[in-house]
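Please decode residue identities from the backbone states below.
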């Protein structure tokens, strides 16, 4: 409940504030995240022994934006997602565009929510569970629409640190096996407003911010 109230207060303050970003400024941005999860399980052959599997997830994103007013910006993004474990390897490249707002919370802090639209393409490989060569390859095509709240802190006139806090998104994923005509379509609505779930990134402004 406390976290929910904190989030609501942050949104109210952001809506009532006004940003002081200079118009017609180009900026570069990027963020990266990596996680590893270890699972310990009993060996199917020897119940007294155990083995550890590791699932890895990496996300790398870059973009370029242009401020269209003192309170908004438009830009393009390029991202890569890679997930792997002993059972599956998944890779997806996303190309998209975004619209971002700037709401001043204080002299250096801004609330910067954004809308994103992207198209993704990639490939998944499902490994043979018995270690043979009967792996299955699947081609992936994705359409994603998302809303991402974020907090931005200006270190100086050109550099800013961004914390992306959760997301609300709709994704449509089409999976097709390479050697068959079988296709699977998955539609997913994801709501993640956990204030503890965030990614750190940066923005570099090629011109100075208004004082």
């Amino acid at each position: 409940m406390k976290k929910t109230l904190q989030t609501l207060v942050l949104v109210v303050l952001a809506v009532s504030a006004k940003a002081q970003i200079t118009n017609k400024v180009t900026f570069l941005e990027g963020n990266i995240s990596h996680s590893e999860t270890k699972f310990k399980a009993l060996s199917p052959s020897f119940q007294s022994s155990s083995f550890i599997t590791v699932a890895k997830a990496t996300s790398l994103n870059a973009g370029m934006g242009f401020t269209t007013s003192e309170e908004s910006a438009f830009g393009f993004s390029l991202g890569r997602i890679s997930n792997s474990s002993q059972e599956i390897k998944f890779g997806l490249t996303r190309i998209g565009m975004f619209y971002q707002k700037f709401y001043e919370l204080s002299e250096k802090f801004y609330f910067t929510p954004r809308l994103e639209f992207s198209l993704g393409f990639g490939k998944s490989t499902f490994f043979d569970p018995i270690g043979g060569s009967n792996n299955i390859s699947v081609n992936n095509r994705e359409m994603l629409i998302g809303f991402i709240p974020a907090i931005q802190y200006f270190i100086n006139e050109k550099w800013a640190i961004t914390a992306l806090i959760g997301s609300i998104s709709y994704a449509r994923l089409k999976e097709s096996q390479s050697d068959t005509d079988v296709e699977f379509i998955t539609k997913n609505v994801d709501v993640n407003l956990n204030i503890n779930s965030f990614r750190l990134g940066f923005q570099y402004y090629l011109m100075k911010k208004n004082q």
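Observation: The CA atoms of residues 5 and 135 lie 49 Å apart.
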